Amino acid sequence: MVSPSLSRRWLIAAFVLPLLLVAGWAGWLMLQTAPPSARIAEPAPDFVLADLDGNPLRLADLRGRPVVVNFWASWCADCLDEFPLFSAALAEHADAGLVVVGIVFRDRSEAALEFMSRMGAGWPVAMDPGETVATRYAIVGPPATFFIDRDGILVGRQIGPIDAATLDRRLSEILGAE
């Protein structure tokens, strides 16, 4: 005769084991279908977004040029400090074809337009509805900046605010010989 405690253990195992197997399978399936994330020394994940004027902005169209992708928001105090650095970098490296692309994170397009105007920023900026690009780049909050070389390879990233020295160092990695 089987003891009641042994029967209870088998009954629990009979229900729990299939649940664990289904949960494990579901997790594995999610990993297999997850969008590619941004990894250093690999091609930067491509994206197509609408800029603030409604025009398409595609990362792949910038291949052949060094690119800085900056996730920002008008409510981000650190972003306010970074914008003059990006403006100066664009002016200094215009002959090298440097491109800065801004991606607005959890903000309204009206606020982004006003911020860009107030800061005198002249680079393309796109909204990211549904945060699909932010997810592919593993963004949890602004600012976050990615450095992509002329071949479309992600060379570096800066999570959090960037200072002038770090920006210069990262730019030298993607600009190469000017």
Characterize this entry briefly.
The chain has 178 residues and is of the alpha/beta class.
Task: Tell me what the structure shows.
The protein is α/β, with parallel strands linked by helices. The protein folds into two domains: 1-34; 48-175, Glutaredoxin (3-Layer(aba) Sandwich), CATH 3.40.30.10. It contains five helices and seven strands, in the order αβββαβαβαββα. The strands form two sheets. A five-stranded mixed sheet has the order 5-4-3-6-7, covered by helices on one side. Strand 1 (48-50) and strand 2 form a beta hairpin. The longest helix is centred in the N-terminal third of the chain and has 30 residues, at 4-33. The model is unreliable at 25-34 (pLDDT under 50).
Would you identify the regions where 5 or more consecutive residues have pLDDT less than 50? 25-34
Q: What is the total domain count? A: 2
Strand order of the largest sheet: 5-4-3-6-7
Named at the architecture level, the CATH assignment of the largest domain is: 3-Layer(aba) Sandwich
Task: Return the CATH topology of the largest domain.
Answer: Glutaredoxin
Hey, roughly how much beta strand do the residues contain? 15-25%
- The number of helical segments is 5
Span between termini: 85 Å
Fourth CATH level, the homologous superfamily of the largest domain: Glutaredoxin
CATH class of the largest domain: Alpha Beta
Round the mean pLDDT to the nearest integer and report it.
Answer: 86
Sheet/helix structural class: alpha/beta
Question: How much helix, percentage-wise, in residues?
Answer: 40-55%
Q: How do the SSEs run, as a string of H and E?
A: HEEEHEHEHEEH
Quaternary structure of the protein: single chain
Shape: elongated
Number of strands: 7
Sheet of most strands = 5 strands, mixed
Instruction: Output the radius of gyration.
Output: 23 Å
